[in-house]
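Q: Focus on the chain.
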Amino acid sequence: MSSIRNLKKDINYVLGDIIEACYVWELDNPKADTKKSEAIIDEAIESFDALLDKVNEKNIENKKAHYKAINSELETVAGKLIEKVNKL
């Protein structure tokens, strides 16, 4: 991992793309119930906040391992959210 800034950008871009996919689905299906897509958006926002809180933590003993764990958590969360978007 090259920098904390890049990790923050990755979190922003990945979760932002998932939210955008939900909005596109809502636009493509105006008559469909949007409760599921809104729940996905809410979950993505909560994940975004939680991940950034972890990135901004101070007093970390092993920074490299900490940021690697955050990156792998981002991949896991994003995978689950993408599965939910695909099921819409």
In short: The radius of gyration is 15 Å. The chain has a mean pLDDT of 92. The CA atoms of residues 55 and 85 lie 26 Å apart.
